[in-house]
Amino acid sequence: MVRLITHNLLACHVKNCTVNNFPLEFKNVQLEIREAEFNPDFIRGFLPKLEWKALVDTARQLGDTSLPTEQPEMIDDEFLQNLHHVLLEIHVEEGSMICNNCKHEYPISSGIPNMLLAEHEIA
Q1: Residue among 100, 104, 88 at smallest CA distance from 33
Q2: Which InterPro entries does the annotation name (predicted)?
Q3: What's the whole-number average pLDDT of the chain?
Q4: Rounded CA separation 84/56 (Å)
Q5: Which of 53-88 are b and which e, b meaning 16 or more Cβ less than 10 Å from the residue's Cβ?
């Protein structure tokens, strides 16, 4: 499933595509919101692993403006709930992810991204 928690870890891996290859940009997506059990300890623990600007920009691209531009120093329940929603409840069901550098397109079908490359694209 393509959720923003996963998307925040993905970069283009086409041979010689090593700059401006993160984050992948969503294109022509169909979203589905699915409730997930809230676990504040998990969200708090995952926070240091996030590329914050990429997450906020992507969430806004998908229509969610609940996260602040800068990661707050004081973490409250409302912030954790909003972050939980963005990371775990927004599902990209269809569409594609495109590299800003080489323009390679990774299709998404039934919530599953196809990250496979053709032989000539592999490093």
Answers
A1: 88
A2: Trm112, Trm112-like
A3: 95
A4: 13
A5: ebbbebbeebebeebeeebeeeeeeebbebbbbbbb
Q: Which domain holds residue 68?
A: 2-115
In a domain, 121, yes or no: no
* Beta carbons within 10 angstroms of residue 101's beta carbon: 16
Residue 122 belongs to a domain: no
- When divided into structural domains, the chain yields a total of 1
Residue 104 is part of a domain; what is its CATH number?
A: 2.20.25.10
CA distances from 81 to 11, 34, 78, 91 (A): 26, 14, 5, 16
Residue 26 lies in a domain: yes
Residue 107 to residue 37: CA distance in whole angstroms: 28
Q: How far apart are CA 49 and CA 55, in angstroms?
A: 11
Q: Which residues, in sequence order, are bridge partners of residue 98?
A: 25, 105
User: Is 96 a member of any domain?
Assistant: yes
- Using CA atoms of 70, 52, 96, 39 in order, give the dihedral in degrees to the nearest 10: -110
66 near 15, Cβ under 8 Å?
no
